[in-house]
Amino acid sequence: MITLAHLSDAHLAPLPPVRFTELFSKRITGYLNWRLKRARTLDGDGLVKLVHHLNEQRPDFVAVTGDLVNLALDAEINVAHNWLETLGEPLRVCVSPGNHDAYVKGQLQKAIRRWGGYIRGETVDLNPFPFVRRIGEVAIISCSSAVPTAPWLATGRFDKAQAARLARILRLLGDGGYFRVVLIHHPPNVENFHPRLGLYGAPLFRKVIAEAGAEMVLHGHTHRSSIYAIAGPKAEVPVIGVAAAGAAQHEQMVHDPARYNLFQIQRLGTAWQCTMREFGFQRLSSDIVLRNSVRIY
């Protein structure tokens, strides 16, 4: 049995000191949004407790679907590397980057260099995404939807080139009999598309899954717990979103409280069995509890 933990959207807080010159970009809108709103909704205190609880479960692997940082400042990228180390060594932790990790041009490349083994794996060519991590009979495939965008936009992009690489990887792993878990920050399902926030190229992503197959898709971005499905070659493929790990606890919160998901995956004969347990805070409680238990397969 392989145990896989999934968390997303840590939005590590507090925001480090920002130099005036660093605000000559989209960062000015993000900085104002932080000062007016996000400093209250993303306080970081619950995240420490959530990670401690996750580590007590001793998962075999931890998948992080992006938005580790807020403005993609150099200082934030360094802090994020240190935070990843609290989850485990690079061999058992990987990142699929989010839009905040690519907040302005050039910063995602800096993050990839700094985060090193946490955001690397096996690839089919010299392109960094998708990359693959294999743990027993489970394969984690990390895609990237992270691109810099204009102010007030938080969209993602999935292009034809990445789609072709993903299709090749999924077929190879499918032929090898792996349980394939695809990571992407932005949700690829129709229900979660939004012109200002959604994934451009989502139909292309869905086409790859429908033709090449996968056993599960994990995402973040919405700051909500969710379970949907998209078409696969033979049956629907579960698409599972997790609430923001960095969400603060207060009565007026709009999104779900901080949570993570824990999957137990095993092969029984020729079939797969997968169960999901969701751990996290309740809206008016400081305790982390088992909120939900669902059989995926």
Notes on the structure:
This protein is an alpha/beta fold. It has one domain (2-257): 4-Layer Sandwich (Purple Acid Phosphatase, chain A, domain 2), CATH 3.60.21. It is built from six helices and 14 strands. The protein has helices at residues 27-41, 45-56, 74-87, 107-115, 160-175, 202-212, and strands spanning 2-7, 61-64, 93-95, 131-135, 138-142, 156-157, 179-183, 199-200, 216-219, 226-230, 237-241, 259-268, 271-281, 288-295. The chain has a six-stranded mixed sheet. Strands 4-5-7-9-11-10 form a six-stranded mixed sheet. β10 (226-230) and β11 form a beta hairpin. α3 packs parallel to α4 (107-115) and α5 runs parallel beside α6 (202-212). It is globular, with a radius of gyration of 18 Å.
Structural class: alpha/beta
Percentage of residues in strands: 25-35%
Name the CATH architecture: 4-Layer Sandwich
Distance N terminus to C terminus? 14 Å
The total count of helices amounts to 6
**CATH class category label:** Alpha Beta
The sequence of SSEs as H and E is EHHEHEHEEEHEEHEEEEEE
Structural domain tally:
1
Counted beta strands = 14
What is the name of the CATH superfamily? Metallo-dependent phosphatases
Helix content: 25-40%
Task: Write a compact overview of the structure shown.
With 297 residues, this protein is of the alpha/beta class.
Summarize the topology.
Elements (H helix, E strand, L loop, with lengths): L1 E6 L19 H15 L3 H12 L4 E4 L9 H14 L5 E3 L11 H9 L15 E5 L2 E5 L13 E2 L2 H16 L3 E5 L15 E2 L1 H11 L3 E4 L6 E5 L6 E5 L17 E10 L2 E11 L6 E8 L2
Parallel strand pairs: 1-2, 2-3, 5-7, 6-8, 7-9, 9-11
Antiparallel strand pairs: 1-12, 4-5, 10-11, 12-13, 13-14
Helix pairs in contact: 3-4, 5-6
